[in-house]
Design brief:
Layout (H helix, E strand, L loop, with lengths): L8 H8 L3 H8 L12 H14 L2 E7 L5 H9 E9 L2 H11 L16 E6 L11 E5 L12 H10 L1 E12 L7 H19 L13 H10 L2 E7 L13 E8 L1
Helix pairs in contact: 1-2, 3-4, 6-8
């Protein structure tokens, strides 16, 4: 939930009536005090899962925002970590916070101390060659319409070395018995009404991004796809994981 240090209702309204890029520029100074930031519990689960299949040399955080996912990369990548985002405001906050010494999971300084860089760029046209062996993304796919995912996944594929991994967490969808289901449905409906009545649009629909869609689009982009359960979040009554990490490997 929002903390007292988070944005006011007026600030959220101003952001919601902006474009996606300008909206995040406005929200950046208080973003980490909102529920939109990826929870530490999820970051930790992904870090532990990546450590099992790593270590890696060069990592890229796609749509890095203020850098929550960069903390994961700094613990599993040995040589370099790069964050890319189109919001100058989010990148500025990320750079400032990255300047503070970052402790590793056991309280010590980073074991590998990789070089860290922040790049302003468009995920539809990434300014990189195929130099990464790990690409991650946290919470960004709701900002892309389903038809845009082909291009986004193709770009992730293009910056990976052969055999490189593209990994991201994907929680199981809430059921109609859950309050989260109705909250997400209400949010998506409100965003569609907003975009029908106001320009520029603010794309933020999290319900359409599902495992079946993601897997199909990844395979079409040239990846092989593996699913790893994140055991920290348990299982649903039907036995399926409450949260998975999708690991797509460039052939």
């Amino acid at each position: 939930m929002f903390t007292p240090q988070g944005p006011s209702l007026r600030e959220l309204a101003r952001q919601a009536l902006s474009s996606v890029e300008h909206g995040y520029d406005l929200l950046a100074p208080k973003f980490d005090h909102t529920p939109f930031r990826t929870p530490d519990s999820l970051l930790g689960a992904v870090r532990r899962a990546l450590a099992e299949i790593g270590p890696f040399e060069h990592g890229l955080d796609l749509c890095c925002g203020t850098g929550a996912g960069m903390t994961v990369l700094r613990e599993v990548c040995r040589r370099s970590v790069t964050g890319v985002d189109f919001s100058a405001g989010m990148l500025e906050v990320g750079r400032e916070r990255a300047a503070v010494p970052h402790p590793s999971a056991d309280g010590a300084r980073d074991a590998y101390a990789p070089a860290v860089s922040w790049v302003r760029g468009d995920v539809h046209a990434l300014p990189f060659r195929p130099v990464f062996d790990l690409v991650v993304s946290f919470g960004a796919f709701g900002h892309f319409l389903p038809r845009e995912l082909d291009g986004v996944f193709a770009q992730a594929h293009s910056v990976l070395r052969p055999g490189g991994r593209f990994a991201f967490p994907l929680p199981a969808p809430a059921t109609p018995r859950s309050s989260w289901y109705w909250a997400a449905l209400g949010f998506d409906v409100a965003m569609r009404v907003r975009n029908a009545l106001w320009r520029p649009p603010f794309v933020m629909y999290y319900r359409p991004f599902r495992l079946g869609l993601a897997r199909r689009k990844l395979e079409q982009a040239g990846f092989t796809v593996e699913l790893l359960a994140l055991p920290e979040f348990g299982r649903r009554p039907d036995g399926s994981p409450r949260c998975r990490m999708v690991v797509a490997t460039r052939k």
